[in-house]
Specification:
mainly alpha; 0% strand
Length: 339
């Protein structure tokens, strides 16, 4: 039965991932919905609060698209247009550097050109098969609409879903164990998703301010890239940092200052901001996080890396709760006999 269940989960993995994203999206909106629900008198159906929360969300998305998205798109076009010329200018040997450093610069430039050539060929191949893949792209775009709709139902009927899950287990220690597990999972997902959004917003704000002060070209684009990649544990910030340093170095805009800033901000976020935001919801050792990220990437690509940390945290919570319940059950008869 376990093998069949795992096989079924694997077959419906794409649909399951969509529902998981909907649950996580619901946790992002839950603080706003709870606030509006209290203002409306805490109705059981929560429909007015949900409707107003979605209106506010759409308004914020439109505002972000008009104010930030347009600048990101324009800077991306400028970077694509100016990148070959900037790479050619950066390839010239500098009299201020040693021959070894100039040789390293030449190797980096050749590697970048190879990546650009490969990307261009992949783009042409993708364009050739555009007609074949249109249906797939359209179906993926539908999920942008489906996920908020599913999240709406999770927010509206979440308490009912929890009650139905508890009713499936007879009263006694097992129901208490399931109740504790659901409470811990709720706390974990709430802290994790809100922390991710705040960390992403903090990274985007800090990067934007620093790049604007230092006059780094394509500052909004690089800041948006850094903010988005915060959602991928460890590998995302590392990838964003490498790309930011490369673009700043090729543009000739204070690459050393950018490196120092990125290192300082990473120390601040990893040791001060992130522990404060995560609190006690996610307590996974960094080595285990790295293992989960790489293993998740091998199993399910970007989706696996994104879900690796919460899955590891869920496994940890389940193990601790089940172990505690077994210890309590084993000590219960001895306590009764002593009394």
């Amino acid at each position: 039965m376990v093998v069949l269940l795992l096989a079924l989960v694997y077959e419906v993995r794409k649909t399951l991932f969509i529902f998981i994203l909907a649950v996580l999206f619901a946790y992002l909106l839950s603080p706003l919905v709870n606030l509006l629900d209290r203002l409306f008198g805490s109705s059981k159906r929560r429909t007015p609060a949900l409707a107003l929360a979605y209106v506010i969300l759409v308004g914020l998305m439109v505002l972000a698209a008009t104010q930030i998205g347009s600048r990101v798109a324009n800077e991306a076009k400028e970077l694509t247009k100016d990148l070959p010329a900037r790479i050619a200018a950066w390839e010239k040997p500098s009299p201020n550097l040693t021959p070894a450093m100039n040789n390293l610069r030449t190797q980096i430039v050749e590697r970048l050109r190879g990546l650009i050539t490969e990307g261009s060929s992949d783009l042409l191949a993708a364009a050739a098969h555009a007609g074949m893949t249109f249906i797939t792209v359209a179906s993926d775009a539908i999920y942008v609409v489906i996920i908020p709709i599913l999240a709406f139902f999770f927010l509206k009927d979440g308490h009912l879903i929890r009650e139905h899950l508890l009713e499936m287990v007879p009263e006694g220690p097992r129901r208490l164990l399931l109740d504790d597990l659901l409470a811990d999972i709720h706390l974990l997902l709430a802290h994790y998703m809100r922390a991710l959004v705040l960390l992403s917003a903090a990274a985007f704000t800090a990067y934007s301010i620093f790049f604007s002060i230092m006059g780094v070209p394509y500052g909004v684009l690089l800041a948006a890239l850094g903010g988005m990649l915060e959602f991928i544990p460890m590998l995302g910030p590392l990838t964003a940092g490498i790309l930011i340093v490369l673009v700043s170095a090729i543009s000739g805009s204070h690459a050393l200052a950018v490196i120092i800033f990125l290192l300082a901000y990473r120390v601040f976020q990893d040791y001060i901001l992130s522990p404060h935001l995560m609190e006690r919801g996610v307590e996974v050792h960094p080595l285990l996080v790295l293992f989960g990220v790489f293993a998740g990437a091998e199993v399910a690509g970007i989706a696996g890396t994104f879900l690796s940390v919460p899955i590891l945290a869920l496994v940890r919570i389940m193990f601790k709760r089940i172990h505690k319940a077994r210890v309590t059950a084993s000590l219960a008869p001895e306590t009764t006999i002593t009394r």
